[in-house]
Design goal:
Elements: H1 2-25, H2 32-43, H3 47-63, H4 67-84, H5 87-103, H6 107-124, H7 127-143, H8 147-163, H9 167-181
Helix pairs in contact: 2-3, 3-4, 3-5, 4-5, 5-6, 6-7, 7-8, 7-9, 8-9
Protein backbone atom coordinates (compact mmCIF):
# COMPACT_ATOMS: atom_id res chain seq x y z
CA UNK A 1 0.00 0.00 0.00
CA UNK A 2 2.87 2.39 0.84
CA UNK A 3 4.40 1.82 -2.59
CA UNK A 4 1.16 2.74 -4.40
CA UNK A 5 0.88 6.02 -2.47
CA UNK A 6 4.54 6.75 -3.17
CA UNK A 7 4.04 6.20 -6.89
CA UNK A 8 0.96 8.46 -6.90
CA UNK A 9 2.83 11.14 -4.94
CA UNK A 10 5.82 11.05 -7.32
CA UNK A 11 3.51 11.22 -10.33
CA UNK A 12 1.69 14.27 -8.92
CA UNK A 13 4.93 16.08 -8.07
CA UNK A 14 6.37 15.45 -11.53
CA UNK A 15 3.12 16.51 -13.22
CA UNK A 16 2.92 19.74 -11.22
CA UNK A 17 6.57 20.59 -11.86
CA UNK A 18 6.22 19.95 -15.59
CA UNK A 19 2.99 21.97 -15.86
CA UNK A 20 4.42 24.93 -13.89
CA UNK A 21 7.63 24.92 -15.88
CA UNK A 22 5.77 24.91 -19.18
CA UNK A 23 3.20 27.50 -18.11
CA UNK A 24 5.80 29.91 -16.76
CA UNK A 25 8.48 29.50 -19.41
CA UNK A 26 6.49 29.18 -22.64
CA UNK A 27 8.36 25.98 -23.40
CA UNK A 28 7.83 24.43 -26.81
CA UNK A 29 8.32 20.65 -26.63
CA UNK A 30 11.26 19.47 -28.70
CA UNK A 31 12.74 22.96 -29.07
CA UNK A 32 15.85 23.16 -26.83
CA UNK A 33 16.95 26.36 -28.61
CA UNK A 34 13.83 28.08 -27.35
CA UNK A 35 14.48 26.86 -23.81
CA UNK A 36 18.00 28.32 -23.86
CA UNK A 37 16.76 31.62 -25.34
CA UNK A 38 14.13 31.92 -22.60
CA UNK A 39 16.83 31.42 -20.00
CA UNK A 40 19.15 33.89 -21.73
CA UNK A 41 16.41 36.53 -21.95
CA UNK A 42 15.72 36.15 -18.23
CA UNK A 43 19.40 36.50 -17.38
CA UNK A 44 20.12 39.43 -19.73
CA UNK A 45 20.72 42.54 -17.67
CA UNK A 46 21.68 45.09 -20.32
CA UNK A 47 18.85 46.35 -22.56
CA UNK A 48 20.93 45.69 -25.70
CA UNK A 49 21.36 42.03 -24.69
CA UNK A 50 17.68 41.71 -23.76
CA UNK A 51 16.66 43.15 -27.16
CA UNK A 52 18.87 40.82 -29.18
CA UNK A 53 17.82 37.76 -27.15
CA UNK A 54 14.12 38.58 -27.43
CA UNK A 55 14.51 39.04 -31.20
CA UNK A 56 16.01 35.57 -31.45
CA UNK A 57 13.34 34.11 -29.18
CA UNK A 58 10.53 35.65 -31.21
CA UNK A 59 12.07 34.39 -34.47
CA UNK A 60 12.41 30.91 -32.98
CA UNK A 61 8.75 30.93 -31.92
CA UNK A 62 7.79 32.08 -35.44
CA UNK A 63 9.86 29.34 -37.05
CA UNK A 64 8.26 26.77 -34.70
CA UNK A 65 4.81 28.12 -35.73
CA UNK A 66 4.14 29.22 -32.16
CA UNK A 67 2.81 32.51 -33.48
CA UNK A 68 0.92 33.67 -30.39
CA UNK A 69 4.08 33.17 -28.32
CA UNK A 70 6.03 35.10 -30.97
CA UNK A 71 3.58 38.01 -30.70
CA UNK A 72 3.67 37.90 -26.89
CA UNK A 73 7.47 38.05 -27.02
CA UNK A 74 7.24 40.97 -29.44
CA UNK A 75 5.00 42.82 -27.00
CA UNK A 76 7.78 42.59 -24.39
CA UNK A 77 10.33 43.48 -27.04
CA UNK A 78 8.69 46.73 -28.17
CA UNK A 79 8.50 47.93 -24.56
CA UNK A 80 12.27 47.64 -24.25
CA UNK A 81 12.94 49.04 -27.73
CA UNK A 82 10.78 52.10 -27.04
CA UNK A 83 12.94 52.90 -23.99
CA UNK A 84 16.41 51.69 -25.00
CA UNK A 85 16.42 50.71 -28.67
CA UNK A 86 17.56 52.33 -31.89
CA UNK A 87 15.67 53.20 -35.05
CA UNK A 88 17.22 50.10 -36.59
CA UNK A 89 15.84 47.97 -33.72
CA UNK A 90 12.38 49.43 -34.37
CA UNK A 91 12.64 48.64 -38.09
CA UNK A 92 13.71 45.08 -37.30
CA UNK A 93 10.81 44.75 -34.83
CA UNK A 94 8.24 45.89 -37.42
CA UNK A 95 9.66 43.55 -40.08
CA UNK A 96 9.58 40.58 -37.69
CA UNK A 97 6.03 41.44 -36.62
CA UNK A 98 5.07 41.68 -40.30
CA UNK A 99 6.52 38.21 -40.93
CA UNK A 100 4.57 36.79 -38.00
CA UNK A 101 1.28 38.27 -39.20
CA UNK A 102 2.07 37.11 -42.75
CA UNK A 103 2.45 33.57 -41.44
CA UNK A 104 -0.89 34.00 -39.62
CA UNK A 105 -2.51 35.27 -42.87
CA UNK A 106 -3.18 38.59 -41.10
CA UNK A 107 -2.39 40.52 -44.26
CA UNK A 108 -3.59 43.97 -43.19
CA UNK A 109 -1.47 43.93 -40.03
CA UNK A 110 1.40 42.39 -41.93
CA UNK A 111 1.28 45.13 -44.56
CA UNK A 112 1.09 47.85 -41.90
CA UNK A 113 4.19 46.50 -40.15
CA UNK A 114 6.18 46.00 -43.36
CA UNK A 115 5.38 49.58 -44.43
CA UNK A 116 6.69 50.93 -41.11
CA UNK A 117 9.75 48.74 -41.39
CA UNK A 118 10.50 49.89 -44.94
CA UNK A 119 10.20 53.54 -43.94
CA UNK A 120 12.56 53.12 -40.98
CA UNK A 121 15.10 51.19 -43.05
CA UNK A 122 15.00 54.00 -45.62
CA UNK A 123 15.65 56.53 -42.85
CA UNK A 124 18.60 54.53 -41.51
CA UNK A 125 20.04 53.97 -44.98
CA UNK A 126 19.95 50.17 -44.78
CA UNK A 127 19.40 49.41 -48.47
CA UNK A 128 19.45 45.63 -48.12
CA UNK A 129 16.77 45.48 -45.45
CA UNK A 130 14.76 48.20 -47.18
CA UNK A 131 14.76 46.01 -50.31
CA UNK A 132 13.67 42.97 -48.27
CA UNK A 133 10.85 44.98 -46.68
CA UNK A 134 9.72 46.11 -50.16
CA UNK A 135 9.74 42.49 -51.33
CA UNK A 136 7.70 41.51 -48.24
CA UNK A 137 5.16 44.21 -49.11
CA UNK A 138 4.99 42.72 -52.61
CA UNK A 139 4.38 39.27 -51.12
CA UNK A 140 1.48 40.60 -49.02
CA UNK A 141 -0.11 42.29 -52.05
CA UNK A 142 0.36 39.04 -53.99
CA UNK A 143 -1.45 37.13 -51.23
CA UNK A 144 -4.23 39.70 -51.31
CA UNK A 145 -4.60 39.16 -55.06
CA UNK A 146 -3.41 42.66 -55.96
CA UNK A 147 -1.00 41.63 -58.73
CA UNK A 148 -0.26 45.12 -60.15
CA UNK A 149 0.68 46.47 -56.72
CA UNK A 150 2.69 43.34 -56.01
CA UNK A 151 4.64 43.76 -59.26
CA UNK A 152 5.32 47.40 -58.41
CA UNK A 153 6.86 46.49 -55.04
CA UNK A 154 8.81 43.56 -56.48
CA UNK A 155 10.29 45.87 -59.09
CA UNK A 156 11.20 48.50 -56.48
CA UNK A 157 12.89 45.81 -54.40
CA UNK A 158 14.66 44.45 -57.48
CA UNK A 159 16.11 47.90 -58.22
CA UNK A 160 17.53 48.11 -54.69
CA UNK A 161 18.93 44.59 -54.89
CA UNK A 162 20.61 45.52 -58.20
CA UNK A 163 21.99 48.70 -56.64
CA UNK A 164 23.80 46.71 -53.93
CA UNK A 165 24.50 43.72 -56.21
CA UNK A 166 22.61 41.22 -54.03
CA UNK A 167 22.24 38.26 -56.38
CA UNK A 168 20.05 36.25 -54.00
CA UNK A 169 17.62 39.15 -53.59
CA UNK A 170 17.57 39.75 -57.34
CA UNK A 171 16.83 36.07 -57.99
CA UNK A 172 13.99 36.04 -55.44
CA UNK A 173 12.40 39.14 -56.94
CA UNK A 174 12.79 37.91 -60.50
CA UNK A 175 11.19 34.59 -59.56
CA UNK A 176 8.25 36.33 -57.85
CA UNK A 177 7.78 38.58 -60.89
CA UNK A 178 7.93 35.61 -63.28
CA UNK A 179 5.33 33.71 -61.25
CA UNK A 180 2.93 36.65 -61.45
CA UNK A 181 3.48 37.17 -65.16
CA UNK A 182 2.89 33.52 -66.09
Amino acid sequence: MKINWLIVFVFIVISCFTWNHQACGNIVPGQPEIDSLILASQKASRPKDKISTLFELSKSYKDASELNLALATNARLIEIISKHGTKSDSAKYFRLTGLIFLKMAGYDKSLENFMKSQQLYAETGDTLLQARALMNIGIVHDNLGNKPMSLSYYNKALNYFKLINDEGGMADCELNIAIILT
